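Field reference: sequence -> structure
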Amino acid sequence: MALTNKIGVIVDSFGVGVREGLRKAKDVGAEGVQIYAVKGEMDPDVLVGSARQELKSYIADLGLEISALCGDLGGHGFQDAAANPAKVEKSKRIMDLAVELGTNVVTTHIGIVPDDKNSRVYHAMQAACEELSKYANSLGAYFAIETGPETAAHLKSFLDTLSGKGVSVNFDPANMVMVTGDDPVQGVKLLKDYIVHTHVKDGVRHRVVDPRAIYGSLETEGMEHEKIAALLAEGKLFEELPLGEGKVDFDAYFAALQEIGYQGYLTIEREVGADPEADIRKAVQFIKAYR
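Structure field:
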């Protein structure tokens, strides 16, 4: 197996600001970058006018390109119908920014898709995503849902209800391993028509847990979130680990991506650890070993 996919890095994983993070991404050997664009200097309401072209030129001068922007607005995603109009508009502005900066992918979490297709939460999420899918389609862009909060099969059933492929998938194998216990390889095959971006991350699950306790849900407001947070902090539920140290079978995962003809980025995400830069540098080499 010889991978030809480009390697990306989430700039924010370095924890040093955008421009310094971009320089570090280049230094560790990445070819592309993903950047959070929700608040601070990357907020589409802050990064305006000529500043957008200046940033695009700065990235190009480093020999990098943007694999995606991250537009995760937090909270319960799009579960709350009352909050959705503002979130949908913000998401559209992030997509506009992405296209102007030279990428057509914005990744996000939309909240956990309920099992009950007749529930008010399901309908709220469906209506928001339908609007966003149509907008993304109009831009030739993708609003890509990150895997993890629900099984691949359930996510596919939700995506199949939407128009076109404007709402697609940012595939994260570690989230599946750590939270739902789903098989990333089968997930890739199930979601093959929707995958437009991927994260490369590893981890292990220590205990079965309700995903709603991890990601939050309007339907489970009464759950013991403080207790869950404490267990997470102690690594008793699951742990994100450096590549190759967890339970993601990367031989099989990369082979599955090749099998479906995925040509997009393999973007490294490192959300924990005392020395993320060292872990990211090792991760770049880990992926390059498959070339």
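Note: DSSP finds eleven helices and ten strands in the chain.
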